[in-house]
């Protein structure tokens, strides 16, 4: 089962190296002119014409291995995957002991989103010829299907001394994904002793050590890695170090300067600006992160930044891009754009106090007073939020329940004495109770605190 990860950490997990390519292997002597022509078209990149030429060869001799192989690869490169699948399926039926057909069939199934069939094809290819690419393909399919433990077992089975650094890294990643991080540590140290410039290995090693409670050791290993790794690849190690540091911003800036396409660094810099109240300063970093990789959490941060800047159209757009996590921000943007019915619908099923408070506000403004009251009363009693209290009192005033409204507003003003809306609604409640002098004082207080409604009422 995959290790449970969320947010930024999950997104920093990398897949197995994408080094799997279709095998062509048309180095055999070509006796027939038509086969020579097909190969010539293939080498020139004229794949559509090559397909026709290979089909012509097969029409004359369906047992030509080279023609089946060339046809399948040409179709694959044209993106005609179902036709490529058929071509390689025919190939494995005619030549069941040839590695190339099974391996390429696995590649096609992988692209078609059929992991079970792909795994079977790669397994057969590995049985016929235990190549690195066959084991990597097999393990990659298993990982994508959520079978990380099985992927690690496959890679262990295929492990030999001559395997590449990419193979050893894939094994370590599979072990980590299978919740066997400590087992990946010796694999990573052996790998780094021979290939110290491999940033991904240092990054995974530090991550595992930190998760095992060895944060200081993880930081030391990252420093070792930064001495060995050069160029843009250093940015990933700086990012990992920032995640483990109490002062992440300088490290994030250095990582971002080294590799502006490293979206995680730009995202975290934008988030830091946003949390500091600098929405305008956050935008540049967040937009850069979004351009590099339009992840849902980046879209969510952009929506929050645009909301604070009162750019409600962009807030709505990015909240929508964020998917379900953006529903509340999308509702806020819709409300600000005057689309109250839409905002109310977007809030359905959202149970946070903030979402419920906005729902109460919408019901109140839409004149659905009893519904607003039924929602706002328990919400206020559970948290005693002044804003919720003001809306609850407004609903009570609109329903003519002035005495109840006064009690709520007195409590609100005891907690937030400069709440202009509370003074205004208190003035309305007191007027409803016939206490004109007290109402006048409350309205004057509201006007002094900037309530335009109170100011307009006093001028009448």
Automatic annotation (TrEMBL):
What Pfam family does this protein match (any one)? TPR_16
Which organism is this protein's natural source? Thermus scotoductus
Report the PANTHER family cross-referenced here: TETRATRICOPEPTIDE REPEAT PROTEIN 6, UDP-N-ACETYLGLUCOSAMINE--PEPTIDE N-ACETYLGLUCOSAMINYLTRANSFERASE SPINDLY-RELATED
**The organism sits in which domain of life?**
Bacteria
* Protein name, per record: Tetratricopeptide repeat protein
Q: Which SUPFAM superfamilies match?
A: TPR-like
The record's Gene3D superfamilies line, in alphabetical order, gives: Tetratricopeptide repeat domain
Q: Which UniProt keywords apply?
A: Repeat, TPR repeat
Output one GO MF annotation. identical protein binding
Q: Repeat TPR: residue ranges?
A: 65-98, 99-132
């Amino acid at each position: 089962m995959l290790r449970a990860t969320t947010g930024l950490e999950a997104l920093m997990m990398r897949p197995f190296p994408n080094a799997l390519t279709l095998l062509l292997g048309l180095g055999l002597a070509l006796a027939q002119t038509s086969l020579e022509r097909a190969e010539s078209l293939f080498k020139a990149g004229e794949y559509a014409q090559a397909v026709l030429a290979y089909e012509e060869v097969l029409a004359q001799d369906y047992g030509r291995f080279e023609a089946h192989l060339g046809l399948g690869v040409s179709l694959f490169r044209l993106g005609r995957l179902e036709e490529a699948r058929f071509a390689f399926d025919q190939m494995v039926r005619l030549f069941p002991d040839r590695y190339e057909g099974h391996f390429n069939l696995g590649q096609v199934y992988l692209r078609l989103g059929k992991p079970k069939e792909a795994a079977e094809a790669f397994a057969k290819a590995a049985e016929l010829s235990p190549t690195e690419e066959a084991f990597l393909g097999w393990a990659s399919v298993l990982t994508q299907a959520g079978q990380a433990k099985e992927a690690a077992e496959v890679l262990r089975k295929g492990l030999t001394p001559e395997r590449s650094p990419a193979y050893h890294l894939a094994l370590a990643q599979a072990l980590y994904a299978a919740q066997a991080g400590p087992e990946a540590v010796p694999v990573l140290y052996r790998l780094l002793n021979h290939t110290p410039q491999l940033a991904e290995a240092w990054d995974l090693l530090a991550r595992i050590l930190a998760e095992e409670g060895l944060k200081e050791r993880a930081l030391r290993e990252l420093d070792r890695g930064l001495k060995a790794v050069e160029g843009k690849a250093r940015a990933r190690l700086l990012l990992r170090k920032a995640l483990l540091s109490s002062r992440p911003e300088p490290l994030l800036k250095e990582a971002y300067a080294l590799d502006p396409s490293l979206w995680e660094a730009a995202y975290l810099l934008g988030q830091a600006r946003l949390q500091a109240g600098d929405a305008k300063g956050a935008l540049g970093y967040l937009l850069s992160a979004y351009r590099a990789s339009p992840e849902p959490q980046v879209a969510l941060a952009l929506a929050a930044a645009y909301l604070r800047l009162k750019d409600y159209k962009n807030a709505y757009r990015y909240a929508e891009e964020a998917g379900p996590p953006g529903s509340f921000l999308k509702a806020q943007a819709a409300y600000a754009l005057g689309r109250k019915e839409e905002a109310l619908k977007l809030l359905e099923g959202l149970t946070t106090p903030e979402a419920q408070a906005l729902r109460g506000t919408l019901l109140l403004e839409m004149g659905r007073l009893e519904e607003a009251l039924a929602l706002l009363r328990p919400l206020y009693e559970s948290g005693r939020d002044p804003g919720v209290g003001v809306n609850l009192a407004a609903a009570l005033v609109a329903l003519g329940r002035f005495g109840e409204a006064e009690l709520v507003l007195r409590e609100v003003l005891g907690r937030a004495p400069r709440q202009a809306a509370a003074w205004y609604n208190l003035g309305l409640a007191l007027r409803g109770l016939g206490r004109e002098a007290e109402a006048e004082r409350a309205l004057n207080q509201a006007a002094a605190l900037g309530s335009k409604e109170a100011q307009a009422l006093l001028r009448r």
